[in-house]
Amino acid sequence: MSPELVSTVIGALIVAWGAFTAWRAPRAASRIGLLSGMVTAVVFVLLIRLITPFGGWSEWFIYVWLAGMAVIVVSVFRAALTWSDLPWRAGDEKARRNEASGLGFSALLALLVSGALVLPGLFL
User: Fold this and answer.
1) Sign of CA dihedral 24, 15, 38, 113
2) Is-contact 52 7, C-beta < 8 A?
């Protein structure tokens, strides 16, 4: 197998994981949990942009990417519908810690991936 095929297959798996994470996000018990799921999905979109070569409309990966983006867009719409009914924090103390650590991890991952996207451009 060529390295490009391996990179594309891994990219397709990351797109599927990001779409699944976004699809699950509106089921969160609180707004913090919902934000954590959406931030994770955005990180996966940034990560795909970082590691996967887009070969144009003739490659199969672009259609997987478009399907993943469609799932994320629908999930954002679903999240907007459930946003007003959710409390900011969960009632259970253990769930609060889980939410905070999940959102913190998602934010840190977003910062690292964004930095990996921007830093090479600064050195050109």
Assistant:
1) positive
2) yes
DSSP per position, 16-38: HHHHHHHHHGGG-SSHHHHHHHH
For 17-71, the pLDDT digits (tens) are 888 878 877 777 778 778 878 877 877 777 777 677 666 667 777 888 888 888 8
User: Can you tell me which residue has the tokens 């999930």?
Assistant: 75
Tell me how many degrees the CA angle 84-88-91 measures, rounded to the nearest 5: 120
Q: According to DSSP H, which parts of 1-124 are helical?
A: 3-24, 31-51, 61-83, 93-122
Residue 74 CA to residue 97 CA, distance in Å, equals 28
